[in-house]
Amino acid sequence: MRDALSNAARKVLAVAILLAAAYVLFKVVLGFVTAIAWIAVVVLAVVGVIWAIRTL
């Protein structure tokens, strides 16, 4: 009985660690994608300003 309880507790701990690692990885990937999107927005804004100045 004690071995089964210990085994179950280890599995619960392993699942909790996996969930925490997945959450951290998701946040890192989401931050990376957001950073790339902001860089693209800034580049498009600069290109738009340059185009507008040349057009005027």
Task: Describe what you observe in this structure.
With about 55 residues, this protein is mainly α. Helices cover about 95% and strands about 0% of the residues. The chain contains one helix and no strands. It is rod-shaped. The N and C termini lie far apart (about 80 Å). The model has no long low-confidence stretch (mean pLDDT about 95).
Largest sheet: none
- Provide a count of the helices: 1
Overall SS class: mainly alpha
User: Level of helix content?
Assistant: over 70%
Total beta strand runs: 0
Question: What is the overall shape?
Answer: rod-shaped
- Provide the gyration radius in Å: 24 Å
Describe the structure concisely.
The chain has 1 helix and no strands. It is an all-alpha fold and 56 residues long.
Q: What's the topology here?
A:
Elements lengths: L1 H54 L1
Summarize this structure as a short list of keywords or feature phrases.
mainly alpha; about 55 residues; 1 helix; rod-shaped
